[in-house]
Amino acid sequence: MKTKRLTSKFRGFTLIEALVAVTIITFSVAGPLFTANRAIVAAQNTRLQLTASYLAQEGIEYVRAMRDDEYLAAYQAGGANVSNVAWNDFINGLSSASITQCRTSTCMLDPTRPMGVGVIGSDNSLQICSGSCAPLYLANNGRSDMYTPRTDLGGTRTPFTRTIQVTDVLTDNNDKRLVSTVTWNFHDTSYSVTITDHLTPWQ
Prior knowledge:
The chain is built from 3 helices and 9 strands, in the order H-H-H-E-E-E-E-E-E-E-E-E. The chain is an alpha+beta fold. The radius of gyration is 30 Å and the shape is elongated.
């Protein structure tokens, strides 16, 4: 007696076919997810780089303001050869707003303190780094949020560290190279932004 073999119009997936389908779906989803992740990381690092650029420029502008304050103070005091007196005071340490210590050592900037240069623990805005420079904290000084190396203001620690360095340009006593550098780490990679300017006796 012959038996009829029953066949179905619908066949099920084999295990191999299912694995291939899952693999294809995984790759089609993983690619865009990886691209989106890299875009987010790039956007975060761009934001950090923009902040670092502003912080480095702030260092340049602050030291320029110190120079200009020396000129204003010298003109108020009066006397002969005021321009040369103000410039020499600014670069050679004859006043509290001098950059002389930052010509031989790396300094850090604390805009929450009075304008001037001093040693660590002083009340001046430019301070010599003892060993490595302190990281910056975003703190409120009662008027606005400021980036400062001070920890006593209860601020939030940031990944940024800012240094200020002044070097002589060849043998020209009337040209000083000012370098403001901000460094930070992001995803175990070190980054830095450096802005350079020249200070001259502008009068």
